[in-house]
Design brief:
The chain is of the alpha/beta class and about 325 residues long. The protein has 10 helices and 17 strands. The structure holds NADP nicotinamide-adenine-dinucleotide phosphate. This is Alcohol dehydrogenase.
Amino acid sequence: MKAAYLEGNNQPYIVKEVSTPVPTGQEVLIKLEFSSFNQRDIRVQKGIYAVAPLPEGGLAIGSDGYGKVVKVAENADPMWMGREVVINPGRNWGDNPDAFGPDFKIMGCPDQGTFAEYIAVDQKYIRPKPLYLTDEEAAALPLAGLTTYRAVFTKGRVKAGEKVLITGIGAGTALLALQYALAAGAEVYVTSGTERKLERAIEMGAKAGFNYKAEDWAAQANALTNGFDVVLDSASGKGFAKLIEVLKPGGRLVFWGGTDGPIESIVPAHIYWKNLSILGTTLGSNQEFADMLSYSEKHNIKPVIDKVFPSLAHAQEAAEYLASGAQFGKIVMANKV
Ligand SMILES: NC(=O)c1ccc[n+]([C@@H]2O[C@H](COP(=O)([O-])OP(=O)(O)OC[C@H]3O[C@@H](n4cnc5c(N)ncnc54)[C@H](OP(=O)(O)O)[C@@H]3O)[C@@H](O)[C@H]2O)c1
């Protein structure tokens, strides 16, 4: 098969012939139609994804995909044959719903991912493609949907009427968080470094937006809202301290990323004196993946897609576009040659 392949850190994606995986045990072989990019792919390519570095010799990475089952191994259920499926990017979550166990992995490094024509996946990690989604949306939903479903509901416990702030709304994850929080009945506010993205989030139902590049955005937010019950963040970095300023006493700050780098300059008393809860989160369990899919279908939640690249040969272009930060939503690639 052909794959969009990374031969080493800081190398561009190249289309390369690699061996087609052979499904064994309870695995099925999926012919991938579309895949989508995540920040993780940038970090793996740059060699800064410490928990799962690129293996010697390189790999076809990619953690999101949609396709059709074309082969079923000896112990997999034959009913999967021919079915269109989405894939849970998480593996081996373990028994503890609060945190993953020692064997947890994310599809697409260190094992083969979705930037290829085929992938073999254990049947327990596939689900029928939700019919209300387009093929491109089905490839864009899994990783961002699972992460933000857990952030909004399991960790954030967002309730109707609460005031919620979502940072960096251009992010694929942030836009799904916006939709889940709105579906929960929250009053949602957003931040972005781009005015047009703030306007687009307001068109989607956000109440107002703040440009995080403005020195006084936190004061503006407090003046307008009197503070937030919940803040959902994926940027961390220097701006994290401001998120503590805009939380109400007793508020929850849920975060799942470090796009803007390490957290700096937090005054401890600003957290404990306000009785804040600061909650880290990640992808979720297989049960949360199933719950996310049914909640998304019930509330007609569709990932916002910024751009679809037409073939595996465009992987490098797609990765550079993601790294530019110009996108509003997910970047999808057709898995054609
Ligand atoms: N823990 C997990 O399991 C998990 C799962 C998924 C993602 N993540 C992490 O979550 C983060 C987002 O991932 P993604 O794939 O959704 O990213 P993405 O689609 O590439 O989004 C990047 C966005 O980050 C925002 N941003 C950049 N600098 C910012 C700042 N200083 N303050 C606020 N926002 C800023 C920008 O928003 P604007 O353009 O609106 O300014 C930009 O569009 C990444 O760090 C990723 O590694 C973690």
